[in-house]
Amino acid sequence: MAAANGTGRPSRPSNLKRNLWIAGATALFIWAALSVNVNLADLASLPSGLWLILTKMIPPDLSYLKSAVPAMIQSIEMAWVGTIIGATLSLPLGFLGAKNVSSPLVANTMRQILNAIRAFPELILAIAIFIPIAGLGPVAGTLAIGLHSAGTLGKLTAEAIEGIDAGPVEAARAAGGRGLQVQRWGVLPQVLPELIGFWLYRFEINIRASAVLGVVGAGGIGFLLQQTIVFGRWPLAGTAILVVIVATILVDTISGNVRRRIIEGSDVQVTSEAEITDPALAAR
Amino acid sequence: MTAVAPATRRPAKPPRSRIVFVGIAAFIIITLVSVSEEWGIGLDIGGIIEDLGNGRVILEQLLDPNWAFLPRVVQPLLETFQIAVVAAFIGCGLALPISFFASRTTVPNRLTLTISRGILSVVRALPDFLYALIFVAAVGIGPLGGIMALIFFNIGVVAKLLSETVDAVDTGPIEAVDAGGSDRTQMVRWAVLPQVLPNYVAYSLYAFELNVRASTVLGFVGAGGIGFLLRVQYQFQAWSNVSVIVICLFVIVFVIELISIRLRRRLV
């Protein structure tokens, strides 16, 4: 009981730095919460407002399926083609962006270009570049998805290539491989399973991203969602939302299974739910 | 020596599994249907290349930003930042307990697990802009709709990533606290939480980053922030003003990402 201080237990390491971070973050939150222009009366009306919407949406008007399903299919097609465009562009960009394949100067420049592409959301790419070029419609949306995906996939590809084993590359070189041959036989086989995983993951994200493009007339189910909700046609909106949920979960499940199969191979018992948890992958 | 049949020099290639062919066939068919004029989006690459010039007039204006517009961008940009901060704090705060309900490690009951994961995949299936539409309809135009939308969006992202991290924790500490006689809450607090805390903070920073990026989309449907200004200028076809907004957004996204990546790297 009366043991001298410090002899019983080692003293705790200082938490000062951590506590300062927590205090700073809390202060930021309090500042933002107090200064943001939110009316407390609006906040109080939130539960009743939501409840009203929910009761109006149920039961959904299922006759609207004949409009909502084709629109959702168009969203999925936009995401699919956009992902293919992005993946195709990202291969050369990713190889050039990898320090162990290209020169450090080229790699750094390419990384900055990829960062710049990624900073523009699909919506901005659609309104500022692709709608003027391709006109209103799903093609503009698809191209916007494709370009943005090229940015994210290119970055992930470059990082994957930088993580490869140098052995096969040396082997390909020793066997007389040149330039592209080394990339084809020494690099690509090592990263391909991972890349296909990235592509499928991107496809899942693009389905969600494609929804918003409908708001500016770039195709997909977003237009129906916006029209039905803004004009308060809740039974129709309920049907459209239902279609979005079912289709997205369906595609996620299929794509997730394919991804797991590719990464783990066919010999492995598929029990693990381990997925790609690198948050950079979820970049939309 | 000379008469060795060629087949003996190399081992035979393993036969390609059927599933690869099925996969390639499915890929080709889906792609052809998707690009077709009749059933798909009608992608015509030749036509697009011909039309590339159409964008020139707008592009020229975009490349000539109207800097006099800059003062009007400051306030909405600040609002975007505030919305992102508030939503990230509340959303990520809620995601922490939720993710423990969605992991095998902390919830051994299969039924509870299936239900909580089911709810989570529904939350994740709705895109951020759909949340924004619904909440704007419920509470009216303004940042509250945006905050609520991003809260749900953040719960979806962080709870998913974190529950997978919890699935993969080291079971040693769990056995240790079990042996020490802990109940489930104590187990989560002392054996699981310390292991996943750095990842949790990293995912939360990442969610914050996504929130700033989402602001264009939110404002477009009236949920506050810079997107609303963007929409108005877009509808007026004031491309030099759009350009200023896009550049400001680009800079803020870039800076936040830079800080966030640096912090995340230190954490994990």
Structure in words:
The complex is a heterodimer of chains A (284) and B (268). By secondary structure, chain A is mainly alpha-helical. Chain A has one domain (62-282): Orthogonal Bundle (MetI-like fold), CATH 1.10.3720.10. Chain A has ten helices and no strands. Residues 268-284 of chain A have low confidence and may be disordered. By secondary structure, chain B is mainly α. Chain B is globular, with a radius of gyration of 26 Å. The mean pLDDT of chain B is 87. At the A-B interface, helix 1, helix 2, helix 3, helix 4 and helix 5 of A face helix 2, helix 4, helix 5, helix 6 and helix 7 of B.
Contiguous uncertain segments of 5+ residues of chain A: 268-284
- Provide the β-strand percentage band of chain B: under 5%
Q: How far from one another are the termini of chain A? A: 58 Å
Order of helix and strand elements from N to C terminus of chain A:
HHHHHHHHHH
Strand-residue proportion of chain A: under 5%
SS-derived structural category of chain B: mainly alpha
What are the secondary-structure elements of chain B, in order, as H or E?
A: HHHHHHHHHHHH
Secondary-structure map:
The complex is a heterodimer of chains A (284) and B (268).
Chain A lengths: L15 H20 L4 H18 L7 H33 L6 H16 L2 H13 L3 H25 L3 H9 L4 H35 L8 H9 L3 H31 L20
Helix pairs in contact in A: 2-10, 3-4, 3-6, 3-8, 3-10, 4-6, 5-6, 6-8, 7-8, 8-10, 9-10
Chain B lengths: L5 H4 L8 H18 L9 H7 L4 H7 L7 H32 L8 H16 L2 H12 L3 H25 L4 H8 L4 H37 L5 H10 L3 H29 L1
Helix pairs in contact in B: 4-12, 5-8, 5-10, 5-11, 6-8, 7-8, 8-10, 9-10, 10-11, 10-12, 11-12
Briefly summarize what is shown.
With 284 residues, chain A is mostly helical. Chain A contains ten helices and no strands. The model of chain B has no long low-confidence stretch (mean pLDDT 87).
